[in-house]
Amino acid sequence: MPSPCVSPGSAACFLVTDDRYRTPSPDGPEGLNYWVLAWTDDSFMERDTIARVPARHVYQDGIFTRFVPWTASVTPIRIAGDDPVFGYSQRAELRVVDSGGEPKRILRWHATPDPITSEEKRQWDEDQEVGRESGRRVQLDDYPWLPEHKAFFDKLKADDEGNLWARALRPPDPTPERWTVLSAEGRWLGVVQMPDGFTLSAVARGRVYGVHRDELRIATARVYRLRGG
Fold this sequence. Notes:
1 helix; 16 strands; single chain; mainly beta
């Protein structure tokens, strides 16, 4: 389903839609699906597509679409001036295009790939459920393509100063979230680790806003002030 991102006072909306609903199968041997970035009116009928960018690797297993393990689909965001920002999770980089889809900047940061261990692969195979029809578990050997390392990031946000925040692939609970922060021009500003049990929702006015869950998974809204290191 399309998800609109509306500019207040503007007749146009910025549309992000998952292309898997428009193509019968993923493209290429690595099974990539794509996000489509487009301008549209509020009826979503008239579209002016400006870019088609990688979303996530998937495996088409008959009628089922399975996500390739250790990859991530990173929803593009929009920053000041209606510039879309997107990234392919297997590379430590972000790309900024203008409202017409023309490239403006490529932002890269140093990140050491986190390899997928033999134990993690074995555990993944053991965790799969037996299929009702096949009578067997889906195994990593069934996938025609697998990444050599885990995704560098799985979510993007922008704060009120135009800085970009990229979350490292979400670890199992209770490991805290870690976000790499870049300026809009690509200058590395550092890594921010969130408090235990805290999920970031927004960053503004020098504070992080989000939801904390305790040991019983009870959720409460919290705000923390950012402190320079």
